[in-house]
Amino acid sequence: MATGFSFTLHATDGRARTGVIATPRGEIRTPAFMPVGTAGTVKAMLPESVRATGADILLGNTYHLMLRPGAERVARLGGLHRFMNWERPILTDSGGFQVMSLSGLRKLTEEGVTFSSHIDGSKHHLTPERSMEIQKLLGSDIVMAFDECPALPAADEAVAASMRLSMRWARRSRESFGDRPGHALFGIVQGGVSRDLREESAAALTAIGFDGYAVGGLAVGEGQAAMFGVLDYAPDLLPEDRPRYLMGVGKPDDIVGAVKRGIDMMDCVLPSRSGRTGQAWTRRGQVNLRNARHADDPRPLDEECQCPACRGYSRAYLHHVVRAGEMIAGMLLTWHNLHYFQEIMAGMREAIAAGQFEDWERGFHVLRAEGDIEPLGRPGAA
Ligand SMILES: [Zn+2]
């Protein structure tokens, strides 16, 4: 493992694990949820507010940052940590996935991918070597190998060819990354929902040797059952003493199901994106603050939640600012959602350490099944 970067497992409970990733920029408690700071900001949040929710690490997107403001510019300005005022660890993706999902006009070759920017149509070229260079310019603490990921469902041969290309790119990524003390490089297991391909991919990556391993190519439209089907075996294909990262996941019940199956790290735009559209995630499931039932409700979103949105404001106020399109709506709901996601992680870490993950998980599902608190009677209706 890279010098200055380490992973220590503290406890396991069933297949669930808890531990700590140590980096020169601070510790990451696992299982960890990483808020997504797409373009150098977790939208609607100050970095200190993100930290206050309990986040130890953020994710930055290579694709977005290379297009705007540009990796060389970020490097000239002192690197991404200084640029965005977040001194703790940052993981950057490789750009591969977002080239697939966001850019126009792509041309894929053995060498890499040429694409046009979704912002201004300008032409760009990404290769494993350039992806490593960009992530180094950004100053990323955890760098992801450059990969290609087909949208599911896809034909088996297409998934196999894409996975094998990604494995050749993984080797080039490893060679290009070199030896960078304090910085880690993670490989990404591909292979869609095929167990044979996942096994082939995991074997190829472990033969190259990485500081951590991601399970990629999930949460791309295959559904939760298929995703859990892969997670029933995929984490066990990876070295036990390295962190395992499930990319782009997910909803609270996806996260809990993934941790149960041996995943240590996750990221998703869901809590922040939902927060900007009036959607809250709570212990009792999803709440749409846009709904008229909240208009006269003086109660907090979640009376047990300690976040600023729940401590200082009523459902009626949140409903009002969502409907009025006020910026504070996105700020408060993003804060609440990120806080709730971090509470889930903290709860799981504690439960795993105490050997009580199963009980914790049962409680999690029971409360969600009960659903949101009953609406209040309409004033004057009684
Ligand atoms: Zn809250």
Automatic annotation (TrEMBL):
Residues 15-365 form the tRNA-guanine(15) transglycosylase-like domain. Keywords: Glycosyltransferase, Metal-binding, Queuosine biosynthesis, Transferase, tRNA processing, Zinc. Its EC number is 2.4.2.29. The keyword Glycosyltransferase applies. It comes from Rubellimicrobium aerolatum. This is Queuine tRNA-ribosyltransferase. It holds the Pfam family TGT. InterPro entries: ArchSynthase1/Queuine_TRR, TGT, TGT-like_sf, tRNA_ribo_trans-like. It catalyses: 7-aminomethyl-7-carbaguanine + guanosine(34) in tRNA = 7-aminomethyl-7-carbaguanosine(34) in tRNA + guanine. Pathway: tRNA modification; tRNA-queuosine biosynthesis.
